[in-house]
What we know:
Blueprint: H1 11-29, E1 33-39, H2 41-66, H3 80-106, E2 114-119, E3 124-129, H4 135-160, H5 163-175, H6 177-188, E4 194-200, E5 205-213
Antiparallel strand pairs: 1-5, 2-3, 4-5
Amino acid sequence: MSDKKERKLTKREQRRKEKFIEKCHLMEKDGYKVENLFFSILLVNILGLLVILPINFLFLAIYYLFNDYTPNDNTYSPYIGLIFIALMLLLIVVHELIHGITWGHFAAEGRKSIEFGVIWQALTPYCTCSSPLTKGEYIKGALMPTIVLGFIPGIIAAITGWVPLLILSQLMILAGAGDVLIVARLLLHRPKNAKVVYLDHPTECGLVAFVKKND
């Protein structure tokens, strides 16, 4: 990517990027090969929707399999839009906190490895972990917000027939589109006869893999 296309990093992002580069150099000296597993923000927005929409439709199908819902005047209020906007803003913050709590649990340095930020050009909040993780650990941290805020409420909505919860779960599943896409990319990464650890990229959407061939 050329310099013209690179977004301007904040001081905190620049500091994280420098530490990330140092980490990559150390891993390379230790015999690891660095492989990029990240996407551009635009690609995440496009491919992420293609990956996540079938999951949305699945939870809608589950809901309508158990519920014959007919809208009525008592379901909504003039303030429902404002309530949902406020909830979404709150849950977006919670989404990133769940990333941080889960990855921090597995990280060697715990919560010290976790940082949060916002890519203002794309209005995209993010959480990043500066400690290498195993594939399973990274996947758990990546998917946990969508499971907690999307899948579980979707199942509860199907059981209770509560439409507002169904809508909220659908929105939170959509919010996890980028995470699901990154996990799909990670699952396709299967180096043979090698030791692999994964490190979250500090400024891009995704991660890098450190691959060391076994002797």
